[in-house]
Amino acid sequence: MGESSLLADLVVDSRGRESHIVQWLTSMGYPAPKETLVNSYLGYATRIYQKPTGEFDFTILLIRGTPPASKRGGVINPIEGDGWMVTLAGAAKDNPPTDEKGFLEFIRSLPAPNLYQAIKDAVPLTPISGYLKTENRWRHFEQMDQRPEGLVVLGDAVCAFNPIYGQGMTVAVSGALVLAHCLEKSGKNLSGLSKVVPHQLSRGIQGPWLLATGDDYRYTETSGAQRNALTGLTHYYMDHVIYLASQDARIFTLFFEVAHLIKPIRLLFELWIMVKAIASIAKFQFRAKRQIAKKTLPQEEI
């Protein structure tokens, strides 16, 4: 079958991580967009099991270690036909094996035994499938000075996220809505659309990008854009917000609304939460100093 040409006023590339948009642009003489890459070297392995007989005290079971010391996690998701989709994940190149023995040993090594206890007698229905292409990659089309008129890039072809945070599809849908809004506003005049849309998309990407890459930076093995002082400070602050979420239902709800992109990340930095977080930080520091004092001073001086 030979090649053919199709003329269009608007071309939308939404081919995801595997898009060849950069090669196409450079082949036409345009500069490649600047890229920001953050890779925590996360790997997945997934297998479907038949749900064992018996009663289980969970609907979804999720076990996740605390980075950077603990890099492994796993989840059981119920699926149709009384099946369990079991997915293991390991960051910093500590990836789950795809062989029978290694897969089960990885489950045994998780921070809590619940997943292994649930799965040890389950009957596997599929082979084990692995996946390693999980880096965060942002192509900054909004920074291009030269671009073809009538071209818009959406979804993972613009910004692909580490899948573990479950943000990619939501950001892609948000991007499609941005395009729809711009088309509605422009009417039949598509002039400048290829410049306006990338700038609008970048605004919606910034918050999810901060959430995803901020957590990936907890691993010392993570490569890509460099950490800075703000990264460490943000981690320290968010650790205490997460601790407060375990104590305060209001913060718990807000944290997950932000994590699932229902509400903007700036809400986690409102004054009432910051006051609680600072108080939590002060309390933990006081306890740490007391522990140091107990170890270093004679008992009668404490």
Please describe what this structure looks like.
The chain is an alpha+beta fold and 302 residues long. The protein has helices spanning 21-27, 100-108, 114-119, 168-186, 193-216, 229-245, 249-259, 271-296; strands spanning 11-13, 34-39, 43-50, 61-64, 72-79, 83-90, 123-124, 129-131, 136-140, 151-153, 159-160, 223-224. It has three domains: 11-35 and 136-216, 3-Layer(bba) Sandwich (FAD/NAD(P)-binding domain); 43-131, 2-Layer Sandwich (Alpha-Beta Plaits); 229-296, no CATH class. The chain is built from eight helices and twelve strands. The strands form three sheets. Strands 3, 4, 5, 6, 7 and 8 form a six-stranded antiparallel β-sheet that branches. Strands 11-9-2-12 form a four-stranded antiparallel β-sheet, covered by helices on one side. It is globular.
